Amino acid sequence: MADNIELAPLDSHPKPPRENGTYAPSHNSDDSDDEDLVMDDGRRALLGPMASTRDTTGRQKDSVTSTTKLWPQVRGIVIESAPTLLFATVGLLLTGELLDHVSRWRAMVQVDQLIMIIPVVLNLKGNLEMNLSARLGTAANVGELDDPPARRSIILGNLALLQVQATVVSFVAAGSSLVLGLVVPRAQPQLQQMVEREERHSGFPTFIMVAATAMTATCLSSLLLGSFMCGLVVACRSFGLDPDNIAPPIASCLGDLVTLIFLGAVSSVLVLVLRTPIPFTVAILIVLSSVSCGLYTRRNTKVAPLLTQGWSPLFGAMVISSGTGIVLDLFVSRYEGFALLAVVISGLPGAVGAIFTSRLSTRLHAAALSLAPPATSGSAEPSPRLVMMILLLVTLPVEIIFLAVIRGLGWLHLPFLFIAMSVLFFCTAVLSSLLIARALTNFLWSRNLDPDMYALPIHSALMDLIGQLLLVLCFEIVSLLGAKVEVKIPKTT
Hints:
The protein is an all-alpha fold. It has one domain (68-487). It is built from 16 helices and 2 strands. α7 (148-181) packs antiparallel against α11 (278-299). The longest helix has 36 residues, at 67-102. It is globular. The chain starts with 7 loop residues before the first helix and ends in a 6-residue tail after the last strand.
């Protein structure tokens, strides 16, 4: 039977740890065996802990996949992921609403680069928190957080690493905004009258102010949200919940929301002292703090190798996000309600894929260590296809609730044809997210790259782009069929 897969290669050939402390897939002389182990869609790793359980006589027990044994896992995925995805949707809506208000603040109007930096910073910063949640979820499920000294070392090391990553990505984002400022028109059309009444700033002092704002906001957000995510994972472990089902979506939505709040607050303060040495002083203090965190991370054996890993997908995601920005810029004014709908059709499938990626990565690590994840002990582990089906069915009601709420509150008038087509394209986006997550995770694992560090940034950026392209296609088809989406909320002037 397909589900009755033994892991003799995993049990009989211990694998040496990689430099980052994870374990690479074993390589036998038989290439076909190795390919089966690594590239079977993660199935052997997912089923491995249960399939390799032995009784006291040393004989291999049969893998039990009956409905009775699977039900606790299925129920756990539904109960843990459904409220999390609903919470993530609310967070995405709040972020979109907050962005609309922040974009009209004095600092954003006077300094063009500040509004340009927001999408890049939010994308990069959200990926950092998702990577953190995935790493800690794996560490929790393989038991590394059960020992208090090890837990303290892992958490402090990851928080210090997060400060280094936040400083680097925010400075790069500030540099990209400087380049974009030379190309992109200086004012948004809806803000033109306001712009004419405000004094505009540019030049090197402005760049320093933007860099100081970005680095301060991201570092404060990393400190606050990183600590919260660490506490959340530890709490999930204490209460017997699987952090892979809970942490990634929360990290994604809260990362955007908290970072945007800090960006607005810090920029509003620093714009008042733009022509003084204060922004430069703030930037230097942030850099010195980041250097000290980097030195601590290098001395922490639990996380030291991570200093040099995971940078390429972060900046690759930034390139993909630039394409997403172009799509949004082209169609946000062409279609009524596009921005509001894009937040969910892009963000929610990405959150589902993050859950699946984190689960797959945990099972791959557990199988490589020949361990049974504690959260799944005593019941059969669902196959990847079953997990994909569950996540799709869990996400669909969240999308329907979202459409019903925005229609019921009068935010958008949605014809029935548009609702039907948007649900269809939403299911397509979720299915694409799950398939990409599965393929990307297994591809990275087969290349000895830790999915917890490399998968989520690329996956998140791809889903933003795919989700918005599918939404454009939905609007085009509905328009050709004669239906139209109308905005019912009065526009702010």
